[in-house]
Structures are given as structure tokens and as C-alpha cells.
# Entry
Amino acid sequence: MKLLFSITHPDTPPTPASEGFRRAVRALALRGPEALLLYTERYDDFSLPGGGVAEGEDLEAALLRELREETGAEDARILAPFGWIDERRPWYGGIDVMRMHSFVYRCAVDGPLGEPRMEAYEARNGMRPLWVDIGDAIAHNRRLMARRDSKQGFSVERETRVLELALAHRLAG
# Structure
């Protein structure tokens, strides 16, 4: 799988005393001009379905699990790897920096979405799955980032860059 980009939060210490590591998966599910995204009311942003990979869990199994949990997609399949992102950000809980590798896969979601099984914090934040025009989601997130302090919306920057790459890939292909 190819590296899409590296991203470092501006507050990340250049030489951290301690660094943690996390693997995550993200689904790039496309249907015509639309992508299956998560809208989070609390942050007013669009993001890709996905999340952390448990110790010993296969990346593709984790991706299908996350798709079912966050979108209710029972009939989803992985089409191909899209790429991965190397991310570094300040952290809490005894470590200075968290390094995360997010693995993005192109997916197909057939049939209707079922009932999501969100984690409690996701439900409290008003997260819900929607099919959204990719260009509209990018424009929405870009407007959001322009209104915020540069230290806010770090995850939304990652998500928006992936959507931009997906749109460019779609237009080129």
C-alpha cells in the first residue's frame, strides 16, 4: 500500500521523550459522485467511517467491523487498498506523541444501511452516516477549517485530504 501523505500536528514536540503507536482503518465507500461519510454534529464535519485496529486484528476485518458499527453497512466489501497516512500528534496519558498509521481502503456498500451501533461518545457527539457528494463534503470541511484556529480540526484536515485525493483519482480515472 502506498503512502498518501504524512501529517504532523503543529504542537507535536520535535524530539518527544515518549511515543505511542496506533493503527487505524478508514473506508472510502463511493457511489457515483457520493461518498459514505460520517457527519458529526458537535464538530460540524464530515469524516470517513473507520477507527482503531485492535491488537492482533486483521486490517480488513477491522475495516468491515467499523463500517458495520458506524454506518450499519451489513453488505460491504473491500475493493482495493487506496493508501495509508502517517500521522503524529501530541497525546496525553503518559506519552508525549501518538503516531498513527491510517490505512484507507476503497469499499463498496450494497443495499440499504442498517442501524449503526455507535460508541457512547459517538452518539453523544451526534455522529450519523450519510451519502454526501464528495465535492460538497470537501467544500464544507474546508470552510470549517478556515473558520477555526489552526490547532483545531486536525483530524478533519486528514479526512479532507483523503477526500481530495479520492476526487482527483476519480476525475483522472
Residues 85 and 102 are 5 Å apart (CA to CA). The mean pLDDT is 91. The chain has one domain: 3-172.
